[in-house]
């Protein structure tokens, strides 16, 4: 599916539910993803950067891997995000509704990390409930506070580059 068409579909759907769509590609977002929850952290390359054949070949040897760190996890999530009949369960998951909080350092903190990372990487608009968009003028993000295990996904267009704390 064409990303522009997908973004138009997401915007139309979001308006029906009173949601605000945000383009995440220009946001620096701190994530707490590690080698047990992210294929990129495990293997060094984001699975969304592979073509379908390469991903399938890698997938054959992953039967013992945990769900989140499998090569197909984010790829399947991206496929699901492209279907309008999945929008409600992905973007408004009960009990796990994503939020985005701008911290005093200028970076963003979120939950729904895999969904938000995929949307940022692929240039997909992400719909949030208005009350899920927050600003914290008094606290830096976990990455800037040098909390262990936090990574920063900087605003680098659609290219997912993680920066780890030294």
Q: Which secondary structure elements does this structure contain, and how are they paired or packed?
A:
Elements: H1 3-16, E1 20-22, E2 29-31, H2 39-43, H3 52-60, H4 71-81, H5 87-91, E3 99-102, E4 108-111, H6 113-122, E5 126-128, E6 133-135, E7 151-153, E8 163-164
Parallel strand pairs: 2-4, 3-6
Antiparallel strand pairs: 1-5, 2-7, 3-4, 7-8
Structure description:
With 166 residues, the chain is an alpha/beta fold. 33% of the residues lie in helices and 15% in strands. It has six helices and eight strands; from the N terminus they run αββααααββαββββ. It has helices at residues 3-16, 39-43, 52-60, 71-81, 87-91, 113-122, and strands at 20-22, 29-31, 99-102, 108-111, 126-128, 133-135, 151-153, 163-164. The strands form two sheets. Strands 6-3-4-2-7-8 form a six-stranded mixed β-sheet, covered by helices on one side. Strands 1-5 form a two-stranded antiparallel sheet. A hairpin with a 5-residue loop joins β3 and β4 (108-111). 28% of the residues are buried. The model is unreliable at 157-166 (pLDDT under 50).
């Amino acid at each position: 599916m064409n990303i522009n068409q997908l973004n138009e579909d997401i915007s139309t759907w979001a308006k029906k539910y009173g949601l605000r769509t945000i383009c995440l590609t220009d946001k620096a977002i701190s994530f707490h993803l590690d080698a047990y929850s992210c294929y990129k952290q495990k293997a060094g390359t984001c699975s969304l950067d592979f073509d379908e054949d390469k991903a399938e070949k890698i997938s054959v040897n992953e039967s013992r891997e945990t769900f989140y760190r499998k090569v197909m996890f984010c790829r399947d999530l991206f496929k699901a995000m492209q279907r309008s009949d999945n929008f409600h369960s992905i973007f408004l998951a009960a009990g796990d509704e994503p939020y985005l909080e701008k911290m005093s350092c200028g970076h963003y903190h979120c939950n729904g990390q895999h969904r938000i990372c995929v949307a940022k990487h692929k240039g997909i608009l992400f719909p949030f409930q208005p009350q899920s968009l927050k600003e914290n003028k008094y606290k830096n993000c976990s990455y800037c506070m040098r909390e262990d295990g936090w990574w920063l996904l900087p605003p680098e267009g659609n290219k997912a580059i993680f920066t780890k704390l030294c």
